[in-house]
Amino acid sequence: MPGTRLSETPACERLHEYLRAAQSRGRRAARRGTVSRQVPALAGIPATSFAMAVATVDGTEAQIGESTTGFSIQSISKLFALCALLRHDPRAWADVGWGPTDAGYGSVADLERNHWRPRNPFVNSGALVVTDRLLTHTGDAVEATVELLRTGDAVYSDAAVAGSEMAIDHRNSAIAHVLAEHGRLTNGIDRVLPQYFAQCAITASVRTVARAALFLADRSGDHSVLDAETVRRVNAVLLTSGMYGAAGDIAYRIGLPAKSGIGGGVLAVMPGRGTVCVWSPPLDGDGNSAGGVAAIEEFARLAGWSVF
Ligand code: GLU
Predict the structure, then answer these.
(1) What is the H or E stretch that residue 29 is in?
(2) Is 75 annotated as a binding residue?
(3) Of 114, 224, 235, 280, whose CB is crowded by the most CB atoms within 10 A?
């Protein structure tokens, strides 16, 4: 709207302004990252892919880029699987922990140091326990996770992505064996691992992920998937453990609970206001989307989103 001051434009137009600025900063930062080769089927994803979506608790939405294209949400699924489990068992925290670690998300040594209890639900040992318990409660952890994400655009588990990770995996199998050895899994490894890989292989658009996560931002209870106390705890653990070893950096630069995945997705939550999700495949040295973090940093700065 030429000639109109930003503060006078409708909410949606203002969000679009912020998204345009965030996109240009995110695209620049993405050039410094590298697309992960950990899951062979994802190694060829174009590094220039970019999408960003915002959803607010008052119902406003805005998107930019390939916002309805599905991407592999990978570890972002750990957040939705956790929330699906907490609906069945609000005390599941006791089995998966809630404290941070700087040991990396696939550390067997850290699991052993912590007497075989995972540090939190976002490291792989914790996520495997979440998948195991969700499988017990629902009979299908993948479907229970997908169900939380279904908000319009297609959401499905990509069998080719799951199969390609499973075919080369040793690390998650090792973690699952250690968990099983110490009685931390209620189902057999042969059931838990395929469910875990299929859960990581969930494909969804940034618009879907931002919409689906709104219950984590909504304090009115209108989107209530979980009670307010559980939502507060999930956001706290996201802030301290959702971004691999970069929690301090993300708190300092952005100040929002957030979760990322090696597919290049990042989701951030502003309690009381809304959610923002970016997909930009190249990752930085911490394993977070380089473009995603930069784009959310710019968006949060412009929108005044920070929990601090
Ligand atoms: N499927 C990947 C794994 O289990 C997900 C890693 C991630 O996105 O952090 O290692």
Answers:
(1) helix 11-30
(2) yes
(3) 280
